[in-house]
Amino acid sequence: MPHALQKPFPAGDLIEQLAARGVPLYAITNFAASFWAEYAPTEPLFAHFRDVVVSGAEKMVKPDPAIYRLAEARFGHPAGAMLFVDDNAANVEGARACGWQAHHFTDAPTLAADLRARGLIG
Fold first, then answer.
1. CATH code, 37
2. Between 20 and 30 A from 45 (CA), which of 13, 38, 39, 73?
């Protein structure tokens, strides 16, 4: 079943700030490959992402540890060097179990405070 995203993207300004500071951005999505192919071009924010692991194309989904390991290999960074942000607590716990830093997204101001504390935004 296709997943409908909110418009505008709930943390779009934070993505813009991270990109402006040169923070490498990547994504893991549980979208179907066909839906992602249609949706991604409609959201300009995704142009900031260097790579996106699409579960439908990879035949694995979050929070399966295999998708985080695939992302590590594809993105070229060790688990502990990456910050995973997701609104699904199970996905956040899955990333943490794989050694990733993680933030459970509940709202943009809370994420912004976390990003500031990590020195990723001003």
1. 3.40.50.1000
2. 73
